Amino acid sequence: MVENSNLSALTRPCSRPKKHFVLQLPSKSYVNASASASTKSLDTTFASQAQVSSVPATLDISSLQLLHHFSTSTGSTLAGNPGTSRVDRFWRVTAPKVGFSHYFLLDIILSVSAVHLATLYPDQRSSYLDQAEERLSRGVAQMGKELAGLCPENCDACWIASILVCHHTLGLGPQPQNYLCFGGDDATKWIYLLRGCRSIFETMSEYIGRGLLAELFSAEADNGCDGHEAPPQPIDYTTPLELLRCLLERADHDDCASPIADNLEALSLLKQGFEAAYGSGEERLRNNNGIVFVWLWRVPDGFIKSMLDKRPSALAIYAHFAVLLRTLEDHWFVKGWPRHIVQGIDAVTPPGYQACLEWPKDMLGWEEGRD
After folding, report:
1. Residue 204 and residue 294 in one domain
2. CA gap 124, 303 in Å, rounded
3. How many CB atoms lie within 10 A of CB 303?
4. Considering only CA atoms, which of 110, 102, 97 is closest in space to residue 66?
């Protein structure tokens, strides 16, 4: 999701202290003490049997078909819109290579490929989803063991896997009572996964972005598609975001459980996301997945908790995020989610906050009662 060095300003951790509640990872002192060297080269890592997870007894035809589809189709869809040749190559070529040394990642890659195929071939959806679930369950179970011993040798594979698990959940499409950042008991797993990506990245920042992931974070120019496309159709996002800020500053006085500072920080970060996606000057970054999802990566932990607790002020900001998410709706794994999210927010928003939802509803072509 995070594409290149142009995103460094967006992905830079906030200055406020963070209390990570997603993954229990080893401390940096442990990592530094246990690391005998920096991340190995790609070829060396592939050759090292010490890094290979439990090897499957056989590689069946369905696995080969799923891997072929990922390398020829699914991987390119993860590169962003319009994407770059470098990032496209990373997902199509490098990520599967990393999977050959870390089979839990290979299982997760194949699960995402199966979900993608399920969206392309509805008549075979059930069969593909069964394959996806089986491979995801096996991959995630092994990934948990790898995370317990997170180190320079497996951090790249764990980070890639965590990103792909997020894509897997999105690719299944909107589900009842699941609005990604709030909902039923199982609905909030996705936001924990995404925040887990951040935890891995921050814990292993000394190693991630070098070695295996160097090409993904490289600032070098691409020789292929370079993303210099016209920005999305211009919209006036400044006025509604400023109006929302004014409404929240007044309303939050009556909503003591929602920290005003967290809400305002989340709103400020969201404005940066709109500028990156819709801006016409230097502030505009390539229109890729990282621009959008990095907002949920950067917002304060207190704001995440407010969304999980269904605090109306936090959900009002989240509804505006759905408008930014709409810029990715031509991607198979985002289709249907923006409207679904706002529908869920509308259902739990009290009358006093309904004015905060007018702009997101208007931008999404809202029709009352429509699913």
Report:
1. no
2. 40
3. 27
4. 110
Expressed as residue numbers, the domain containing 205 is 26-217
Q: Are residues 263 and 195 in the same domain?
A: no
Q: How far apart are CA 39 and CA 26, in angstroms?
A: 17
Same domain, yes or no, for 126 and 32? yes
pTM of the entire predicted model:
0.79
- Nearest one of 124, 77, 65, 122 to 332, comparing CA atoms: 77
Per-residue pLDDT reduced to its tens digit, 30-55: 233 333 333 333 334 333 433 444 55
Look at the block and give the residue holding tokens 């621009």: 291
Domain-embedded: residue 71: yes
CA distance 159 to 184: 26
H/E stretch holding 170 reads: helix 155-171
- Tokens describing residue 220: 């070098």
113 and 146 fall within a common domain: yes
- In sequence order, what are the residues at sequence separation of 6 or more whose Cβ sits closer than 8 angstroms to the Cβ of residue 75? 88, 91, 92, 93, 95, 96
Structural domains of the chain, count: 2
Task: Give a yes or no: residue 194 inside a domain.
Answer: yes
**Residue 211 shares a structural domain with residue 263:** no
Which residue spans within the chain are E strands per DSSP?
none
Q: Please report how the helices 312-325 and 301-308 are oriented relative to each other, as an axis angle in degrees rounded to 10.
A: 100
pLDDT in tens, 311-356: 999 999 999 999 999 988 889 999 999 999 999 999 999 998 999 9
Question: Is 286 within 8 Å of 80 (Cβ atoms)?
Answer: yes
Q: What is the pLDDT of residue 221?
A: 44
pLDDT band at 289; cut points 50, 70, 90: low
* DSSP letter (8 states) at residue 124: G
Closest CA to 173 of 116, 127, 111: 116
- Tell the burial category of 264 from Cβ atoms under 10 Å away from its Cβ (0-12, 13-18, 19+): middle
Torsion angle of the four alpha carbons 43, 53, 137, 330, in this order, in degrees rounded to the nearest 10 = 0
Spacing of C-alpha 66 from chain mean position = 22
Choice between 185 and 161, residue whose per-residue pLDDT is larger:
161
